[in-house]
Design a protein that fits this description.
It contains eleven helices and five strands; from the N terminus they run E-H-E-E-H-H-H-H-E-E-H-H-H-H-H-H. With about 290 residues, it is mainly α. It folds into two domains: about 55 residues, 2-Layer Sandwich (Alpha-Beta Plaits), CATH 3.30.70; about 200 residues, Rhomboid-like (Rhomboid-like fold, Up-down Bundle), CATH 1.20.1540. The strands form two sheets. A three-stranded antiparallel β-sheet has the order 1-3-2, with helices on one face. Strand 2 and strand 3 form a beta hairpin.
């Protein structure tokens, strides 16, 4: 898993804003969080530990003056950072958007047929589903199918909001595996519950990331990725509205409830497992 390396532990009242602004302008990935009544500044590359520590010491001795810069370049730098730190999450969102626009603009129906959980063909105006055979990519690809502007917008925004934070603490390879496992479980749950059908969307993965983001920090407090309580209430409340048919009754269309619930459950389990493994790794390093 991707690690962060602690550089500083300073009192809460110390203002690190000028330092963090400079680090962002210089393109140094880092984060600041509170732990045991202190501010902790950590970096994600071991090679940055000594330079950042030296910069801080020189700044505090008055040997380096950090001038307040234009906040717009700093924000732009931070934004570029997030994209570079979360390439897997960005790729999943981009693929979803590109496929949605392609199908919306009249891409061949065969494209849709390649991505559904089970193959299908239309005979005499009727939809007939076929055996999957050895086309195992279909276990995952329905997550890239979206059926409306609200669907694609909701899913990609929440994918980025949750997935980018998870990727920054677990690393891109682990995030890729995490997303694929959640996709696999959520799609299989939906198929087992609803049978053959045209279902899709990233929402099962979103709920998996939600569960992961809630549980993992409870086990590994160093991962400051837990969603705000209001977000949890919103998302879980939406899940229950879907489960009880309220959303479908209001005209939002059929909802893949089993995918949502399956994604959430596997996300909770993976969050506990990843968090525990990270804690064990921390304990092993401290024992050396």
């Amino acid at each position: 898993m991707a690690d962060s390396y602690i550089v500083l532990q300073v009192p809460l009242e110390e203002d690190l804003l000028p330092l963090t602004a400079l680090l962002r302008r210089r393109g140094v990935p880092h984060r600041i969080y509170e732990e045991e009544g202190q501010q902790v500044l950590a970096v994600f590359d071991r090679q940055h530990v000594q330079p950042v520590a030296s910069l801080y010491q020189a700044w505090r001795r008055g040997q380096v003056t950090i001038e307040p810069g234009d906040p717009r370049p700093v924000a732009a730098s931070a934004s570029r950072f997030q994209w570079r730190q979360s390439p897997v999450t960005a790729l999943f969102g981009l693929v979803s958007i590109v496929l949605f626009l392609a199908l919306l603009l009249g891409a061949p129906q065969q494209w849709l047929g390649w991505l559904t959980f089970t193959p299908f063909e239309i005979r005499a105006g009727q939809l007939h589903f076929l055996p999957m055979g050895d086309q195992y990519w279909r276990l995952v690809t329905p997550i890239f199918l979206h059926f409306g502007w609200l669907h694609i917008t909701f899913n990609t925004l929440w994918l980025w909001e949750l997935g980018s934070k998870v990727e920054r603490v677990t690393g891109s390879p682990n995030t890729l595996g995490l997303l694929l496992v959640i996709a696999l479980v959520s799609n299989i749950c939906q198929y087992q519950f609803g049978g053959p059908g045209l279902f899709g969307g990233m929402s099962g993965v979103v709920y998996g990331l939600l569960g992961f983001s809630w549980v993992a920090p409870l086990v590994q407090p160093r991962w400051v990725i837990q969603p705000a309580r209001a977000i949890m209430l919103l998302m879980v409340g939406w899940l229950f509205l879907c489960l009880f048919g309220v959303v479908e009754f209001l005209g939002f269309g059929a909802i893949a409830n089993a995918a949502h619930l399956g994604g959430l459950v596997v996300g909770l389990a993976l969050g506990a497992a990843f968090g525990l493994l990270s804690r064990l790794q921390d304990s092993g390093r401290q024992g050396l």
